[in-house]
Amino acid sequence: MAYNFKEKEEVELFIKNLGIEYRFGCFSEKKTEVCHLLGDYEESINSNYKKAFAIYKNNCDNYNHAQSCYKAGGYYMQGKAMEKIDDFKAIDYLEKGCKLGFARACYRGASLITNSPNKVRDYTQGLEMYDKACNSEIADGCFALNTFYLFGSEEHNVTKDLPKAAKYAERGCDLDHLACCTNISHMYMRGDGVEKNETLAKKFMQKAKDIERQESTTIEFELGLR
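^ thats the sequence. predicted structure below, dont judge the formating
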């Protein structure tokens, strides 16, 4: 059936039929990807967060759907559709999503471990999850590790390690992370953790400027300034 999306009634019919299709695919055909889409549908279209959470949680618990584990963990982390935040349950779901290969769950779980006032896991596990996120092309994971090893943390028993800091900064820069490019440029310029190399320092600084210019242009377009 073809829909005319310029007509309000047809848009509403399309959305209604989409929900029917997702429910059938999830509950009758037991398709985990469709169940996750149904959770997204309940969350974004119906704003039924309790139902969305129940779908994500079930899809994670019973069918090991990595992205649903990530979403369920996020609900616990925010206290959404429930009485209170539960960092301990949040990390259980984020850790599971990470182990199942969803990189954003690794990053979010690491952020929870390293920032929560509750000791939900050993701090070193947070660093390991950041590493997994970084190696899965989540640039913010690389930047987090660059920062940790650049300064160290006596409180959390993280030793300052400039070669490691440089490694993660360069990896993050490869993934177009502005701060990582700036940091690795300065490190090459000073010889911090790497052999001093002004050519590489200039190369990475130029990339930082290119990224900054691109991000600025994107923001201007989004704001309608051009």
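The mean pLDDT is 93.
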